[in-house]
Amino acid sequence: MKATWFNSFGSAKDVMQIGTQPKPSANHGEVLIKLSTSGVNPSDVKKRAGAFPNLLDNGLVIPHSDGAGVIESVGEGVDIDRVGERVWVYQAQYGRLLGTAAEYIALDSTRAVKLPDNTDFNVGACLGIPVMTAHRCVFSDGDIVNQTVLVTGGAGRVGYYAIQWAKIAGAKVIATASNAEDRSLCLSLGASAVVNHRESNWSKQVLEATGGEKINRVIDVEFGMNLPEVLECIATNGVIATYSSTVVKEPQLPFIRMMFMDITLRMVIVYAMPESAKLQAIHDINKALEQEKLQHRIAHILPLERIADSHQLIEKGGFGGCVIVKIDDHSA
């Protein structure tokens, strides 16, 4: 099968190889999928760059955890009726070496979710990390109907979906964005107000937007950098759900202040979510897809031969939306 892999760490152009690898087969409890698309996420790029030094101890890595395609065969213990099923894939390269940047993948059948007929393979490759992460951040700590939710970086890959999940759940949403285009996008997704997180004391703008009412939940893309402002506008008993802290990698917590506010701090990474949370996210994602309640953004679609460019796009940043690697010409 055609595939991309790396067996050393470094820049995408230097270490990513394109060629052929053995076609896998479905073992017990697995499905074999002919992939159409592979989603590229920041975690994939970090792995290739060497964020996990032991990753290559047991062999080469075919990168990427998200993707979509068609089940070609099933292993023992899997319903034969799944053959021919269109699926979206998540966690394909978590705790294992062989991900979705290849023509085929064999993996646990539970990680291959039926893709609604009205959803194409490009969108299918966006669902695993961005949409499931956003779902966990929004729903991990109980009902949010009629609550006020702050989504920092609302135009980002996860924030984009967090705004939508919060609106679907009946919350009032305030978002942050740093330019007029992103502000308009957040408003179009359902945010009632958008403040600029690059301005000093932006928490005051949040409180002005809420009429002085403090925030119940925060979905945060830059925990360490944003924490001082968040603490100025979050309510007692509030929840901060964060999935990244890139600028301030080892933030210090004002423990006493947060303790006396009874703040809940939840750190989210999709791979470690409880299985029950993953199942709930899958259920809600597919229901929302079937009902066409989620908007999607595909920023770039590149052929497998340009997979190194896809990694460089993620590293460079400066855009919103998913980056997709096209594996073959499956119809939507």
UniProtKB/TrEMBL annotation:
Spans traversing the lipid bilayer: none
What Pfam families does the database record attribute to this sequence?
ADH_N, ADH_zinc_N
Q: Which domain of life is it from?
A: Bacteria
Q: Please list the GO terms describing molecular function.
A: oxidoreductase activity
Alphabetically ordered keywords of this record:
NADP
Q: Which InterPro entries match?
A: ADH-like_C (IPR013149), ADH-like_N (IPR013154), ER (IPR020843), GroES-like_sf (IPR011032), NAD(P)-bd_dom_sf (IPR036291), Zinc-ADH_QOR/CCCR (IPR051603)
Cross-referenced PANTHER family: QUINONE OXIDOREDUCTASE (PTHR44154:SF1)
Question: Which residue intervals define the domain Enoyl reductase (ER) in the entry?
Answer: 11-325
What is the protein name given in its UniProt record?
Zinc-binding dehydrogenase
The answer to whether UniProt assigns keyword NADP to this entry is yes
